[in-house]
User: Which sequence fits this backbone?
């Protein structure tokens, strides 16, 4: 299948208007269909792992701080 001509699209910093990076080419319909088929084929494996199995892939839990300081009296 011949490649379609594509335009280069630059991501811009909204504060300065300067280009910060070039975005990747648009995916073809065939490429999207291939990736969707791969994801669908993996779904039963993910489901069989259960929530605990999928969580284990993420590693140990980490403490998350949202910048809220608690009173020392608590």
Assistant:
């Amino acid at each position: 299948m011949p490649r379609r001509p594509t335009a280069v699209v630059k991501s811009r910093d909204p504060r300065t208007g300067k280009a910060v990076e070039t975005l990747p080419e648009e995916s073809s319909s065939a490429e999207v269909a291939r990736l969707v088929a791969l994801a669908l084929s993996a779904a039963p494996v993910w489901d069989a792992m259960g929530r605990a199995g999928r969580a284990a892939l993420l590693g140990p839990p980490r403490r998350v701080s949202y910048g809220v300081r608690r009173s020392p009296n608590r």
